[in-house]
Amino acid sequence: MLRLLLPLAGLAELLRAANIPQRTFGIDYDCNCFVKDGHPFRYISGSIHYSRVPRYYWKDRLLKMKMAGLNAIQTYVPWNYHEPQMGVYDFSGDRDLEYFLQLASETGLLVILRAGPYICAEWDMGGLPAWLLEKESIVLRSSDSDYLTAVEKWMGVLLPKMKPHLYHNGGPIIMVQVENEYGSYFACDYDYLRSLLKIFRQHLGDEVVLFTTDGASQFHLKCGALQGLYATVDFAPGGNVTAAFLAQRSSEPTGPLVNSEFYTGWLDHWGHRHIVVPSETIAKTLNEILARGANVNLYMFIGGTNFAYWNGANMPYMSQPTSYDYDAPLSEAGDLTEKYFALREVIGMYNQLPEGLIPPTTSKFAYGRVRLQKVGTVVEVLDRLSPSGPVKSTYPLTFVQLKQYFGFVLYRTKLPKNCTEPTQLSSPFDGVHDRAYVSVDGVQQGVLERGKSLMINITGNAGANLDILVENMGRVNFGRFNNDFKGLVSNLTLDEDILVEWEIYPLNIDGAVNHFIHDYPDQPKRSVGNPQSYEAPAFYSGTLSIPGGIPDLPQDTYVKFPDWTKITEG
């Protein structure tokens, strides 16, 4: 038996030679529609971000989307998720994008790939890697030579991986988005967009549909659209659908109507109530969109979770929480909701719904109380958190200068004078990015916070350790402030005097949690007293026990911290 191994592109050539119908996807400007395999086609898609759903649950979520009547999904590719350090790439485990695409294809879902390099997405720095900021003057999302060099290198890794998954090569990807909502960015650099177009065509070829997405107004499309990239729009429920698509027509007089982000809910911010958008409002506008024959992507269909430090932020500075539930049709946990069935009903008026059972909501189990024991404060375990010791500097260094892009950094200096009376510690240029827990010789003094608390009073003796524990709460993901440096980005003052001679400790929090903190030998564990009594930032440890003799365990659960809160003052 002779085996012939060919890449997918080579297989396409063989099919053409044998007169076997080839898979095609494109735009028919005469019928104002997409054309798939020679026939008019309309997609009804939903957003799922593989980076926000554990790999274990990808198949479950995709199948639920398929059973809702969707024929496509849309997903972002976060550059910083796959290249966390310059030249270090990770496409394994939860980052296995190609496996995710394979699962989508096996489920019968087409894919609209939003490849960046910038994605917004309420994701840290809009998906751009923080190491780009090592050149402090870099102009992100522009023709800046250093930025474009990094983009070209990244796309030279990503796009060749995506090419075999394009629809005409046998894969599920029908369209690829270039950049994202560029018309909302201040640079308005057409040469930048032309450079991206050239890079994408170089790696993906001329057959794939490349597109842009911008707000539904001529103002946004002015700088976001470019010849050679099909212009689409995004807009929310409850608005004027006709006016929104007329805005798209200002850039694309003919071709399919597309809402690339039809919002099923909205994003949350720390300290604000969870936003809920009524199902009736969404269903009504979705019906209007589909009645016009338009294509639509429901953003989000499942929001998921901002694991680790991946949440973004907006300006004026407000960070987003770990949850990216988005009030979507599938909850953060992937549960079926009333909204799911309401939108499924509308979709069923235009697409034939698949036969079969909808996968049920995943089972949950209540494991009972978990007693937490205090392991030690940050200062008490500092030698383990920062085994290389401090970096010494006359003035504070940013996270990027320390090559620590996420988490926490401890800044320490000595009080230069006696502060027996309350003395003002200030961040006069709002230079705490983003939140700092202040202590003097271990005694908590208060919190400095970006845009909120720029001054506190402290007391202590000359020569005492002044510790500033700075938390990165997420980089800005939208607008002109993506170059969001973290740490102490400007000097602190004590009264009118600039504080100098810092010892700066990058903290390996993940290493602590994953490896040593549960069994730290030098600190006896102490039971937690009243959680409302403010102590120094510390580590706590607890054990969740999975009972035996119960089938189907372990199962998902929820964690609740009654009476715990994010401290706002000492």
Structure overview:
The protein is an alpha/beta fold and 570 residues long. Helix content is 21%, strand content 22%. It contains twelve helices and 28 strands. The strands form seven sheets. The protein has an eight-stranded parallel β-barrel, surrounded by five helices. It has a six-stranded antiparallel sheet with strand order 15-26-16-22-19-20, with no helix packed on it. Strand 6, helix 5 (145-162) and strand 7 form a beta-alpha-beta unit. The longest helix has 18 residues, at 145-162. The protein is globular, with a radius of gyration of 26 Å.
Mean pLDDT: 93
The global form is: globular
- The rounded Rg comes to 26 Å
Uncertain segments are 1-6, 525-533
What summary fits the major beta sheet? 8 strands, parallel, barrel
Number of helices: 12
Give a summary of the structure in a few sentences.
By secondary structure, the protein is an alpha/beta fold. Helix content is 21%, strand content 22%. Helix 6 links the parallel strand 7 and strand 8.
How would the blueprint of this fold be written?
Blueprint (H helix, E strand, L loop, with lengths): L7 H10 L7 E4 L4 E4 L2 E3 L2 E4 L10 H10 L4 E5 L2 H4 L14 H11 L2 E5 L30 H18 L10 E5 L12 H15 L4 E7 L2 H7 L5 E6 L5 H11 L6 E6 L15 H13 L3 E5 L13 E2 L3 E2 L18 H10 L25 E5 L4 H4 L5 E3 L14 E7 L4 E8 L5 E2 L1 E6 L2 E7 L5 E6 L4 E7 L15 E2 L4 E2 L2 E2 L3 E5 L2 H8 L9 E2 L10 E4 L29
Parallel strand pairs: 4-5, 4-11, 5-6, 6-7, 7-8, 8-9, 9-10, 10-11
Antiparallel strand pairs: 1-2, 2-3, 12-13, 14-27, 14-28, 15-26, 16-22, 16-26, 17-21, 17-24, 18-23, 19-20, 19-22, 24-25
Helix pairs in contact: 2-4, 5-6, 9-10
